[in-house]
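Changelog entry: the Carbohydrate ABC transporter permease record was regenerated in this release. Current contents:
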Amino acid sequence: MTTTTASARPGERTVGKSSPGAARGPRRRTGRIRRIGLPYLLLLPALVLELLVHLVPMVIGIAMSFKELTQFYIRDWSLAPWTGVDNYRLSVDFDAPVGRALLDSFLVTCGFTVLSVGLCWFIGTAAAICMQDAFRGRGLLRALFLVPYALPVYAAVITWAFMFQHDNGLVNHVLHDQLGLTDQPSFWLIGDNSFIALLVVSVWKGWPFAFLIVMAGLQNIPKDLYEAAALDGAGVWQQIRRITLPSLRPVNQVLVLVLFLWTFNDFNTPYVLFGKAAPAAADLISIHIYQSSFVTWNFGTGSAMSVLLLLFLLVVTGVYLLLTSRGRRSPHA
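Regenerated structure tokens:
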């Protein structure tokens, strides 16, 4: 197919051929745009749900923290008086009753989180290492170890609440009646022992997750390393110290962060175990904020406490990720 242009000189013909690539060019660009936009299109429902479920309530909660929102303004919280940062001042005033109670709850939560995360990691790692080598019945034991993680949280905690009963609980029956380890039946759901009860329940339902993650990480360690170490005379503890734990460092970094966030924000366990009013020894900050908001009906102060908790977790998470990323960075980076 030939075409003659009007601007050609007399006696000359300009011959042009329609190239197939010229027609395919727009099609290729359209296909490229579709391929690039497809992932965003698939992510759009999740982004919309994230916006509705998390971001919008978060913005509303931040706005509520600057208002004197009490039970008198529940019907229309937008009419509540604007107080500025007074709720934040009240929350961090540790000489006042509200701030002192929040500080005590924060310290209890920190101690509880450190013990729970440490015990969950230790028990889960030890169980995963013991289950590393094949033996008869290993599959059954693995399944049994995952039962606490598979059970619904409410069903598991309610069962523990019955076991911790003073008069007819299984714990007192074993410790006092059967073994004689205590002089009299103990109160586990009130007083100082409530911290131990909360810690036991948290570790019981949390260590199978650590076991599952560490067990998956152990599958990536070559068996040749253990065989070479055994030929060099390394014992079991030396192999764990020199091979297993260093190889599990990336897995443990993520595992510890997830356990920390889950444990520090845990609300279901103390709420189901103790109810709306947790004992002072087990007053986690999550249940404390709930009491400040929905028991005393001071939503402004409770929202300010929630924002402070969010900022604390963001700072701790950022510092932790910064330190761990520096540890993973190569010397030549």
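The radius of gyration is 30 Å.
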